[in-house]
């Protein structure tokens, strides 16, 4: 019973801090305000988190739990490059909807330190780039492709948060530039077959999902055989 009460108090402190951060994105928050919201004394907060940074780290993990929960609810298109596009858009949407969480998750940098939740999110992206590589769709290594997507996605999202204004045209342009770079279909890089693969995969509604998947497989096999 006491363990349950202890866990509940910890979660309430995280929730209270998250509410304060969400209410004033980018601004500092008071530990006293967190304690007052939960109805506990400061020693209780320090018992659970050790310091203000410890509480912030817990809130960051909470933010990643929310983000990864949304990711898990997304349906796969069956095409890794399309799923990278969808993941990009979901990443931007999360940041614009939750700027307080996002700036803690990706905007606060400590040399040599990466939050555990960030690693979990990165593994999802690396899984997609690994699948793309298995299909012969990448011009770079899966790790490099994942890094290219992630840093560009973060930069686009932070810019929109800083401006406090969505910019879907910028996000789309950068996203497509990144996809072209990692697939080797940027101007002057890829051959006609690889370019055709990515055009078809980007517009599955034209031919239909099944037909598009078959076309991608056929063109991929042809590209590998003639290269």
From TrEMBL:
Start-end of DNA-binding region: 30-49
UniProt domain HTH tetR-type: residue ranges: 7-67
Gene3D superfamilies, alphabetized: Tetracycline Repressor, domain 2
Keywords of the record: DNA-binding
This protein's record includes keyword DNA-binding: yes
Matches recorded under InterPro entries: Homeodomain-like_sf, HTH-type_TetR-like_transc_reg, HTH_TetR, Tet_transcr_reg_TetR-rel_C_sf
Pfam family, one: TetR_N
Name this polypeptide is given: TetR/AcrR family transcriptional regulator
Species whose genome carries this gene: Streptomyces composti
Lineage, highest ranks first: Bacteria, Bacillati, Actinomycetota, Actinomycetes, Kitasatosporales
